[in-house]
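Supplementary notes for students who missed Thursday's class. We covered one full example, reproduced here. Read the sequence, then the structure, then the short commentary at the end.
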Amino acid sequence: MSDFSAMSVAGDGRRDLALDVFAPDRPNGVAAILLHGGGWAMGHRATMHGYARLLAAAGVTAVAAEYRLLGEAPFPAQLDDVRDAVRWVKANAGELGVDPAKVALIGFSAGAHLALLAAGTQDGSGHERALGDSGGAEVAAVVSFFAPARLDAAPAALERPPLSALVAGGGVARAREISPIRYVNPNFPTTFIVGGMADYMQPLAAGLDLLNAFVAAGAEVEFHYLHSQVHEFPSTPGMSPGVMDSVAFFLRRTLLDRETLAVEAREQNPFARASSPEEFGRMMAGAPR
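Structure (token representation):
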């Protein structure tokens, strides 16, 4: 007997897509859609099950989502599928016990590329319909693990799989057009960027490049690159629980307890009561001696 519910997103011009829903015993109202990696050409939603179980244990309704691979359908079919998964979760929010305004995307590698693109082109982004129909697929948060965010950074790689299949002959211009970093905007959902310092596929410089785009746009972002870790590092048993604890805590802080924690900080942390060094200086000048 499985510990998840096998669901599907009905197709409109495509086949139905599978969703594996891990329901928590005590749902906290947050839903997280998990997107696997594999270079857009391989991989399976089942590789997300371990992460989904850990999130469900923290109260998050976790959905391991299928998307069509490049061998079945050319890009942007994969992005369309992610948006359809978001729409399905929002449409079924009542049955799932989630708040449709508290849906997050969690992507790994190629899945992170899709998560960032879906968020960066959603309604309110200023990039609506840049890459297909984005209506009704808005999310409140993104967790991006080692995302290929600037696909045009290495033109020679565009001649080799999997990028050659992704850009489908479009070269650098197409790579730039489908790079998530292009769509970072001031209204981007709150985002958690995670990576490994020893990841040769998406090195620290690539992560910092994405971080700087968020900072320049004034979008809400957090950044955590772990020392000595390589690509897909959270998949190992020794890493998964701690990493997903940090993800669950990010979702709780940003989607559930944001105001509660802000009030607590103002009441208990004097540094939180000052909005500038000058204001803090005035506070300290008036403190009892």
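Commentary. The CA atoms of residues 68 and 77 lie 7 Å apart. Strands lie at 5-9, 17-22, 31-35, 61-65, 103-108, 141-145, 190-196, 221-226. If anything here is unclear, bring it to office hours.
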